[in-house]
């Protein structure tokens, strides 16, 4: 059974919010309908967003680093928001594992938002129904689009390719390979929700250099001992120059 | 969590309705086994049931203000197999309807004796309907409590104490009202109801204190480390992604200052438990109707604060993502 999901690489996310605006732009004009924008040009603007980028500081100066953290619905394989819905408006699709809301059945009781530990469901202030990331379900199957554009809007927008999209249950998909080979992990594993979306950790590229790699210790001919060492600011060509 | 007054009123009002019915039926049951004197059907059970239905209806009415689309509320009975909310949506009207039927049977006198047990105890129709409705009353307490207790990551709620507290607090307030009602009707059951109101209130005090103690020592499983999946002792949010509010900042934070939060806790600890018990004890010695009514009113006001605190005290793990605006 396939399970579509996003794999977000925190190592390359630069926190530009392009995925946020692209998501809002696509979905406010898509099947999710108009996404509320209350007071957009005045004090305290607020509105519905399916995706947000947050910023965290890990460590303390000078050993600190900034982690940009995009957050949207994780399309859990065991979604706690679905069974609590009293009307059945909240459901998980059999064919691709996308968790969706039927806007015509939702009564806007907000119970599913209480039952989501990640806080990725929002009550739309305009339509008064629960809304959430659809993985651009109205885009990824659209055959009028070129095949390489049948991806969620956030994935299309990401300038650093920090967002991978694919079937995480297909071992050969780009997303599944990234999870497997680059340490993909899930958020809040303690609740057993089995999020389908994974995150790739920050990685450091380090090279360990030992002293004996800088100063030559094994010198069978002891050549350097017989002659004065060159000055440290002069160029050296260890094995070629004869003293 | 942000306490919604629609839900605060729903849960407290139906609690009173359920408790009042349980009080009425307990009185009838005791009179059948000839422990307590028989009451007038129409004026006591009929009118009492009407008051219970009025409280239940007020609670139901209040619940509609919680919905974005109240006109679709009928759909919410669909998923009773998985959702406690759906089960409550079925249990509440069922209990309301049965309470109305119980009241009508008494009021209109459609109360034939079905059979006689050991030649002394007469089992009539209302006794049977009442027995079924008692089961419904407890089912409704269970459903209401489980709506909150079943969300495992709202750790302050995820305990059997939630269901126990809803049951005991609802029953206590219902028996408190029954005392005032019995006194108003000049019934001999005033002392019986008053005694049980005190016992139930003290029992609720024990369980509510237990849940407060439990919640004060709670260790939350989710941390900022598990929330973003970075293992480091010091992680600090620098931006939540937007400047002014969103659903996430409105729905899951109670926004009261710590001083107000503590004040509300002490307000309900006084007004739900010792104050009405004291007023009721005074009332029972002097048999003054006003004191009974006051005891109920004080306890109900306290229950509103208690329910507010119940919601506000619960920490949703999503709050970890919304600690700093930017």
Question: Please, could you describe this protein's structure?
Answer:
The complex is a heterodimer of chains A (243) and B (326). Chain A has 243 residues and is α+β, with helices and mostly antiparallel strands. Chain A has one domain (4-200): Alpha-Beta Plaits, CATH 3.30.70.20. Chain A is 15% helix and 18% strand. In chain A, the strands form five sheets. Chain A has a three-stranded mixed sheet with strand order 10-1-11, with helices on one face. A two-stranded antiparallel sheet of chain A has the order 2-3. In chain A, a hairpin with a 6-residue loop joins strand 4 (51-58) and strand 5. By secondary structure, chain B is mainly alpha-helical. Chain B has a single domain, classed as Up-down Bundle (Formate dehydrogenase/DMSO reductase fold), CATH 1.20.1630.10. Helices cover 66% and strands 4% of the residues of chain B. Chain B is built from eleven helices and three strands. Chain B has a two-stranded antiparallel sheet. In chain B, strand 1 and strand 2 (121-124) form a beta hairpin. In chain B, helix 5 runs antiparallel to helix 6 (190-216). In chain B, 48% of the residues are buried. Chains A and B meet through strand 3, strand 4, strand 5, helix 2 and strand 8 of A and helix 3, helix 7, strand 3 and helix 8 of B. Strand 4 (51-58) of chain A pairs antiparallel with strand 3 (235-239) of chain B.
Record the SSE blueprint:
The complex is a heterodimer of chains A (243) and B (326).
Chain A: E1 4-9, H1 18-28, E2 37-38, E3 46-47, E4 51-58, E5 65-72, E6 90-92, E7 99-101, H2 111-114, E8 122-123, E9 130-131, H3 137-140, H4 153-157, E10 163-167, H5 174-181, E11 198-200, H6 223-226
Parallel strand pairs in A: 1-11
Antiparallel strand pairs in A: 1-10, 2-3, 4-5, 6-7, 8-9
Chain B: H1 5-32, H2 41-64, H3 84-108, E1 113-117, E2 121-124, H4 125-149, H5 160-184, H6 190-216, H7 224-228, E3 235-239, H8 247-251, H9 258-271, H10 274-286, H11 289-313
Antiparallel strand pairs in B: 1-2
Helix pairs in contact in B: 1-2, 1-4, 1-5, 1-11, 2-3, 3-4, 4-5, 5-6, 5-11, 6-10, 9-11, 10-11
């Amino acid at each position: 059974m396939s399970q579509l999901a996003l794999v977000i690489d925190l190592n390359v996310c630069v926190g530009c919010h392009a995925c946020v605006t692209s998501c809002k732009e696509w979905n406010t004009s898509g099947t999710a309908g108009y996404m509320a924008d209350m007071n957009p040009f005045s004090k305290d603007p607020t509105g519905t967003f399916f995706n947000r980028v947050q910023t965290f500081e890990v460590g303390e100066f000078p050993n600190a680093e900034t982690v940009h953290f995009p957050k949207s619905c994780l399309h859990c394989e065991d979604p706690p928001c679905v069974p609590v819905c009293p009307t059945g408006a909240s459901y998980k699709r059999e064919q691709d594992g996308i968790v969706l809301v039927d806007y015509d059945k939702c009564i806007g009781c907000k119970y599913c938002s209480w039952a989501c530990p990640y806080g990725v469901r929002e009550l739309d202030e305009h339509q008064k129904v629960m809304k959430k990331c659809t993985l651009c379900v109205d885009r990824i199957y659209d055959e009028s689009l070129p095949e390489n554009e049948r991806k969620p809007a956030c994935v299309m927008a990401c300038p650093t390719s920090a967002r991978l999209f694919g079937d995480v249950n297909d071992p050969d998909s780009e997303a599944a390979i990234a999870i497997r080979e680059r340490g993909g992990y899930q958020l809040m594993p303690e609740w057993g929700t089995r999020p389908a979306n994974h995150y790739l950790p920050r990685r450091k590229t380090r090279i360990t250099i030992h002293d004996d790699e800088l100063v030559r210790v094994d010198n069978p001919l002891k050549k350097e001992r017989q002659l004065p060492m060159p000055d440290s600011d002069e160029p050296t060509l260890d094995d070629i120059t004869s003293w | 969590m942000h306490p919604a007054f629609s839900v605060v009123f729903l849960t407290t009002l139906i609690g009173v309705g359920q408790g009042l019915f349980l009080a009425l039926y307990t009185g009838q049951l005791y009179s059948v086994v000839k422990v307590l004197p028989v009451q007038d059907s129409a004026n006591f059970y009929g009118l009492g049931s009407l008051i219970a239905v009025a409280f239940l209806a007020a609670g139901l009415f209040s619940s509609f203000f919680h919905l974005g689309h109240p006109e679709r509320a009928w759909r919410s009975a669909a998923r009773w197999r998985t959702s406690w909310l759906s089960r409550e949506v079925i249990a509440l009207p069922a209990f309301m309807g049965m309470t109305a039927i119980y009241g009508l049977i008494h009021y209109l006198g459609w109360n034939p004796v079905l059979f006689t047990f050991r030649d002394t105890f007469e089992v009539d129709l209302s006794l049977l309907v009442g027995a079924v409705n008692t089961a419904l009353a407890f089912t409704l307490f269970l459903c209401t409590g489980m709506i909150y207790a079943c969300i495992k990551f709202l750790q302050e709620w995820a305990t059997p104490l939630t269901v126990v507290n809803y049951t005991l607090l609802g029953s206590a307030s219902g028996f408190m009202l029954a005392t005032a009602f019995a006194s108003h009707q000049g019934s001999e059951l005033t002392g019986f109801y008053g005694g049980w109101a005190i016992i139930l209130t003290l029992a609720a005090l024990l369980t509510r204190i237990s849940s407060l103690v439990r919640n004060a020592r709670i260790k939350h499983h989710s941390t900022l480390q598990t929330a973003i999946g970075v293992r480091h002792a010091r992680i600090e949010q620098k931006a939540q992604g937007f400047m002014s509010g969103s659903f996430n900042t409105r729905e899951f934070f109670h926004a009261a200052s710590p001083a107000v939060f503590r004040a509300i806790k002490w307000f309900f600890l006084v007004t739900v438990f010792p104050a009405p018990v004291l007023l009721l004890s005074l009332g029972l010695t002097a048999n003054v109707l006003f004191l009974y009514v006051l005891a109920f009113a004080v306890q109900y006001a306290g229950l509103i604060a208690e329910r507010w605190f119940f919601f506000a005290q619960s920490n949703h793990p999503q709050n970890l993502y919304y600690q700093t605006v930017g």
